[in-house]
Amino acid sequence: MIAKMKKLTFLVYHKEYDAFLKSIRELGVVHIAERAQGGAENTSLQDSIRLSGRYSAAIKLMQTQGVEAEKHVGDALRGEQALKEIESLLQARQQVAHRLQTAEKEVSALEAWGNFNPEDIHRLHDAGYQINFFVCAEKQFDPSWVDCYNATEINRIGSKIYFVTITSVDQCVELDVEAIKLPEQSLYVLQAQVEGLHKEDEELASHLKKMAETVIPDLQAAQAAIHSQIEFSKVVLNTDSLADNKLMLLEGWAPAQRIEEIKQFLSTQDAYYEIADPTPEDNVPILLNNKGFFRLFEPIMKLYMLPKYNELDLTPFFAPFFMLFFGLCLGDSGYGLFMVLAVTIYRIVAKQLSSSMKSILTLVQLLGASTMVCGLLTGTCFGFNLYDINIPFFQSMKETISLDNQQMFNLSLILGGVQIIFGMILKAVNQTIQFGVKYAIATIGWILILVSTAIAFAAPAVMPMGGTVHAVILIIGALMAYLYNSPGKNIFVNIGLGLWDSYNMATGLLGDILSYVRLFALGLSGGILASVFNSLAVGMSPDNAVAGPIIMVLIFVIGHAINIFMNVLGAMVHPMRLTFVEFFKNAGYEGGGKEYKPFKN
């Protein structure tokens, strides 16, 4: 269900506004109503957001250093200093990398020519001789260059010849090949420079790794302070200024159950306030307030989108279906038992768990329990069939709850039909709540048509197909669906819209129900793949008293680990698809609500 919200309006004198906002933040209950003003143009806010991004990058860098970080209470001031030092080290590494790239490029250019002192080239030039460096393909080299320019081969790499010409300073050397301009340092000097830069980079990297042992909590504390500053700035931007900027007007939302607490707080503040109920035009933030079992499924609802304030929260209504569908998709009692035991052991071993993590683990345990129960319908346990074991307990269960493939196929379709009809009932309830009962009449008519037809098909003894009772219900349902699907419009428009709804119902409903066949198909495929791994484990193990059992266990464990991973993923995704597409569509779910996020530290 959706928690009831109250609209709050505050009017505060401008000199007391900052202190008032800090008090509101300490209270941590009020969700500030957002306005589309000033956020993108506010320089201070954008600077804070960029600074937060710098902290995020620094924290991520420190976490990837591969060292165990010390745990201590973070200090924001130390975090600021650490950020500056980290960015300085990164800038230094970037400069080293640039110099290293240049040096390595020069080394590569000199390697083909060997080591020599560039000063010798200058001394020869002063003595009246010039040396030019060239490279060409072997077939391009002209032997006449040896006589004309004293061409001398220095190196030959592949099909390329590296050569120099030695001529007098006043002689012009023009060859139709690539001329090379070499660095002004010798090869040995450059190689030593490259080695020194590598060492400098390693020292900088070592310094960063050393910092990673201590600074992460400080960086996180500094980032939290920036986030708090960002939220404060956003609230200021969502404030209206009145009376020549003397009065500040702020709107917000709070759960109705916290209003008394807010009133007590406001009685200590010098601020005028009003508390009112939301109007249909208000964009009310959504706080889901389900209890117990249903609360565990709220994260799944949030993966799609939150409902609007005046909509039904469908979390309690899809939760039992989702749990059942997961069990049918995974469909192996052994896998379900493994999930329950693994999570239980983890909860015992883990020292500290957040409340959200505890809820997720409890959900996994429930889904594992559902899988154990649904697996008994086919008797599958780690790919083996329990009902092949000649034990009275298993044989009695086989006679009581065992279903063959055809029955599992039928069960999937029946569950699909039940959930879709249930969704249509919720749609009628939602329409009644939002707009009034007359807007739900057409939906109720379609429910009468579908339910009566299903009963007549499944239990003709109770209601014969096409009999008097069935025909009366069909006529009443058709009149409701065709004449009242759009209240306020003339009868011909209603009839036309009713015919269009009939086409959509005939085509869409069949496709929606057939989508539920995946419940049977996924469970069957997972069981077949599990039995294949069992056969591989037995068939591929060598006939050796020591190696045979080891290899068999390895194949069994690895194969079932892969199968569990793939099938658990499918058992999460496909029930979500059935919930978010088939069920939500037939329930008339719109969604689009914004989550309740109170302004707090």
From TrEMBL:
Transmembrane segments: 317-348, 360-387, 407-427, 439-459, 465-484, 519-540, 546-569
Subcellular locations according to the entry: Membrane
Membrane topology, record value: Multi-pass membrane protein
Pfam families with a match to the protein in the record: V_ATPase_I
Keywords: Ion transport, Membrane, Transmembrane, Transmembrane helix, Transport
The family this protein is said to belong to: Belongs to the V-ATPase 116 kDa subunit family.
Protein name according to UniProt: V-type ATP synthase subunit I
Native source species: Phocaeicola acetigenes
Lineage: Bacteria, Pseudomonadati, Bacteroidota, Bacteroidia, Bacteroidales
